[in-house]
Specification:
Blueprint lengths: L15 H31 L1 H4 L3 H30 L8 H33 L1 H8 L4 H21 L3 E4 L6 E4 L6 H76 L1
Antiparallel strand pairs: 1-2
Protein name: G-protein coupled receptors family 1 profile domain-containing protein
Main location: membrane
Organism: Meloidogyne incognita (Southern root-knot nematode worm)
Length: about 260
């Protein structure tokens, strides 16, 4: 998602070679993404009964749906407009609705990725929060709440007067906003920019922290626990062996006395 203004858009039309190369590149990448998601869908269907109670499984479905929305917009808008180098659709209402779907899908992907990261963190660091947010009973509520939040968040773009557009000369999507935004509009665009920039960084840090914990601490705890259990088993075995020896000795003494 690009927050560029109209002043940053190239004014000259690209050459035919650039347009063809750009359009074919968009088409190939989008087609490959759709094929990979189709393969993932088949895997998710295959493991439905085995993994349906896992939060990760539910979140994976949401992200597949988001990516399919994004790639569909690319094939409908970006590819043909890039190849032709002009606004072949004009600017009807349905055109902006489709571009709004791109904004919605982008933000949904971003936030569901963050939610999946939070799920991985909670499994190891906050089991109680993991139960509250990601248990089989609550995961549907969590996912539904996030969808509503993303819809409201994206609707704010239209509220402040920003429309999603696709540049026929620069070949990228951007938000065309009024030159003078309201105070709320300025704050909202700042929040949107910082979310897009820093939320992926936070997710990367979270995954690194999880990796370090699993690599250096989680395994060590299991090894210490296993060593403790093994020591207890050996100690118990020694005690039983000594008890058996003592019992056999007493039996021999008793037999000797009886004789």
């Amino acid at each position: 998602m690009n927050n560029s203004s109209t002043s940053t858009i190239p004014q000259e039309n690209a050459t035919t070679a650039i347009r063809v190369f750009g359009g074919i590149s968009y088409a190939l990448l989008s087609t490959m993404s759709i094929l990979m998601n189709t393969l993932l869908i088949s895997v998710l269907f295959y493991g439905h009964y085995q993994f349906r109670r896992l939060a990760f499984f539910t979140l994976a479905w949401q992200m597949v749906f988001c990516d399919l929305m994004t790639q569909s917009v690319q094939l409908i808008v970006a590819v043909p407009v890039t190849l032709m180098g002009q606004a072949i659709y004009g600017h009807p209402t349905w055109y902006y609705v489709i571009l709004f779907v791109d904004t919605f899908a982008y933000n949904a992907t971003l936030h569901f990725s963050a939610l999946m990261t939070l799920n991985r963190l909670c499994v190891f660091f906050a089991p109680r929060l993991n139960t509250i947010l990601f248990s089989p009973k609550n995961i549907t509520l969590t996912v539904g709440a996030l969808w509503l939040y993303v819809l409201g968040f994206c609707s704010c773009y239209n509220w402040i007067g920003c429309k999603k557009a696709f540049s026929e000369t620069g070949f990228f999507m951007y938000h065309d906003c009024p030159e003078r935004l309201s105070t709320f509009g300025i704050i909202f665009r700042s929040i949107s920019f910082h979310l897009s920039t820093y939320l992926p960084v936070l997710m990367l840090i979270a995954y690194l922290a999880t990796f370090v914990y699993i690599r250096f601490f989680f395994g060590r705890q299991n090894r210490v626990r296993a060593t403790t259990i093994q020591s207890s088993i050996r100690s118990l075995a020694r005690d039983k062996e000594e008890e058996r020896i003592q019992k056999a000795r007493r039996q021999r003494e008793k037999n000797f006395l009886v004789q």
